[in-house]
Amino acid sequence: MTSQLRDPANEDQARADLAFLRNVVSGERPFGRSMGIVYGAAGLLYGTQCAVSLAHLWRPGGLSPWVNLANAVLPTVLFVLVLVTAGRADRHGGGVKGPVGRAIDAAFSGTGLAILVLIVVFGVSAYRQDSMTMWLYHPVVVCVLQGAVWYGAAVLRRRCWMGGVAAGWLLSGLAAGLLVENLEAYLLVLTVALFAFMAVPGYVLLRLSRTG
Length: 212
What we know:
Layout: H1 2-5, H2 8-26, H3 33-58, H4 65-94, H5 99-129, H6 132-157, H7 160-178, H8 183-211
Helix pairs in contact: 3-4, 3-8, 5-6, 6-7, 7-8
Keywords: Membrane, Transmembrane, Transmembrane helix
Transmembrane segments: 37-58, 64-86, 106-128, 134-153, 160-180, 186-206
């Protein structure tokens, strides 16, 4: 019995098991650099877009057509450029490490794909039914999805601030959904949510990707 306990093979296996458990709990690098860059950029760009749209409603006579056109097109153009360039950060050693980090990264990536599909679903349905209100529910669903994925990240990483971000997204989705017929209040909720629960966490994720 003693010889079995001192078997080098058993000791090596025990060390490997302990190392795996430590990685599950803490992760080596919880987030890739591209995730923080993309998430933060999305919050800044689309938060600014909502803020400019809100300014258009508040300003007597509204903003100029050129400003509105730029506000409609420029954020997405810039975001695509961010997507194209951000992947290079992970290819140069900034990728996710550890099983928990990879699981969280996969969850966020899957949520992003779901949002892209929902853009088509809501966009086509709104066009066919000539209903702007239907399109306005798309950001509401996005808020709820973000809240769900952040809740999962909070459970896996056991970080209170992530739970706070999840709660913020879920409450924002609830508020925006109830205020969808009040465009000013609706845009105000989305503006705050994008800056507070996307731009700021994106910066935090970028810092975490550097410190590990």
